[in-house]
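Reopening this ticket.

The earlier resolution said the output was attached, but the attachment link was broken on my side. Pasting everything inline this time so it's all in one place.
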Amino acid sequence: MLSNLRLLQCYKAFETDRIIEDFAGRQRCEPQSHIYHVTAVFEPHWFHGKVWSGRTGLARHELVGKFAPQLFGLFRQWWVHGLADYMPNFYRPNKRPHQPVCHAFVDDTNDGEPYPHVHAVCWVPTALIEGFERWSARQWKEFDKLDVRAADETPEHLANTVRYSAKYHAKWVLHDSAYDLRISLPA
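Inline output:
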């Protein structure tokens, strides 16, 4: 019988593999569509009033976990504003199957960035690529930096892109039951 730790590790691996398979299936159905890797670094004023420096390990993870809903809320605002810009009437039920799909993950960093950020992997249907690229090239007021890059869509590179985006989510196997470190969009 699997231990709880091993069971949760298997589940997180399955969850990541399901995202990879979903995107690969969408690519097979619509070969001209694109997959993008998005990194959103938020303006520092969102983190004022919180003690980020000196926090390590579980204490740092708990702070990131508690702050994740606010980061996802800001990321979702950017996503929905974009949809409204390049996909008229996106909120209608008949438009939902034609929306882009995005899986976003909170990430914390060890390379000098003092605050957490969001990595996302987004599939964009062919008809919306131009609008998505135009929208994502704009500077948004809540982001200090927004990096949107077309992902290499070979199976190996797609898997690496999703696993990279989900690395922090996958790292905290036993300690994230109270925190949601990933969201999926459409709006």
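Reporter confirms the inline version is readable. DSSP finds five helices and five strands in the chain. The longest helix spans residues 57-86.
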